[in-house]
Amino acid sequence: MNAHDDDTALSQVAGAIAEPARTKMLCSLMDGHARTSTELAAIAGVSASTASAHLARLKDDGLLKLHTQGRHRYYRLAGPHVAQAIEGLMVISRNTRKAFVPTTPTRLQFARTCYDHMAGTLAVQLHDHFIASGWLIGEGTYQLTAPGETALIELGIDVATLRTQRRHFACACLDWSVRRPHLAGALGAAFLQNAIGHHWVTQDLDSRALGLTPKGRKALASRFGLEAPACPALTEA
C-alpha cells in the first residue's frame, strides 16, 4: 500500500469507530465476550435494523468477526490488536492538558479485562513488578528472562506454547484509566486465565470488571510481594 492508500484506510476505520452507536458496541466487546446483534442493539440504543447496518460496517472494516452457531450469530472483536487500539484511543480521548484525575468507576479502575488480558490498577502493579523483578526486559515489546520464565512456569503457565502463537509474546498496553502500561500479548492473556483458574480473580459476565478474591489477595502478597489497593467490591471466596 502507498501513502495515499494508508491514509484512506485509516480514515475509513476511524470513521467506523467514530459513530457513537458503533463506539458503544466496540467498547462493550472489550471484555472478550461475544454478543448477538440483539444484545448489541440494546447496548447501543438503536433498532435491530440499524444495529445490523452498524455491525456490517464494523465487520467489513475488519474490526469485528462474525461467528455463526446454529441459528445464532455472534459478534466479537477481530482480535487483541483491535482491543489495544481502542484502549489507546480511550487514553488520547481524555484531555491530557489538565492534571489527570481518574473518573473510571471504582471496580473497573481497580481491575478489568482488556479483551483477553488484565487491565486497571492491579494489572499496572503486576506489570511494574514483572519489570522490577527482572522477569521482563525491553521497551514496549518485552522478552522473558530466565528467572521470569522459571517463575511463570511455577505458576502453571505454558511458556513454550505461548512462544509458538502468531501474536506478540509480551508487550505493553497503555492503560486508559491509570495512564501507565499493563501487560498484553500472549503472556498477558495467559496470566489472566491463570489467575482465573487459580480463583485469584473472578470475571463478571455482564461487564469488564474483575473481582479480587481473598485467595488472590494472599497470592499477591506471598508470590509477588504486592499489597492490593483497596477495592470496595472484592469477591468473597
Summarize the structure.
It is built from eleven helices and eleven strands. The chain has helices at 3-18, 20-28, 37-44, 48-60, 80-93, 106-110, 121-132, 146-155, 159-163, 185-197, 214-224; strands spanning 35-36, 64-69, 72-77, 112-114, 117-119, 136-137, 143-144, 171-174, 181-184, 201-203, 210-212.
Polypeptide structure, described:
The protein has helices spanning 3-18, 20-28, 37-44, 48-60, 80-93, 106-110, 121-132, 146-155, 159-163, 185-197, 214-224, and strands at residues 35-36, 64-69, 72-77, 112-114, 117-119, 136-137, 143-144, 171-174, 181-184, 201-203, 210-212. The protein has 237 residues and is α+β, with helices and mostly antiparallel strands. The protein folds into two domains: 3-78, Orthogonal Bundle (Arc Repressor Mutant, subunit A), CATH 1.10.10; 96-224, no CATH class. Helix 2 (20-28) crosses helix 3 (37-44) and helix 3 crosses helix 4 (48-60). The longest helix is centred in the N-terminal third of the chain and has 16 residues, at 3-18. The chain is globular, with a radius of gyration of 19 Å.
Beta-strand residue fraction: 15-25%
Largest sheet: 3 strands, antiparallel
- Integer count of domains: 2
User: Outline, from the CA principal axes?
Assistant: globular
Observed structural traits:
237 residues; alpha+beta; Arc Repressor Mutant, subunit A; 2 domains; two-stranded antiparallel sheet
How is this fold's topology laid out?
Blueprint: H1 3-18, H2 20-28, E1 35-36, H3 37-44, H4 48-60, E2 64-69, E3 72-77, H5 80-93, H6 106-110, E4 112-114, E5 117-119, H7 121-132, E6 136-137, E7 143-144, H8 146-155, H9 159-163, E8 171-174, E9 181-184, H10 185-197, E10 201-203, E11 210-212, H11 214-224
Antiparallel strand pairs: 1-3, 2-3, 4-5, 6-7, 8-9, 10-11
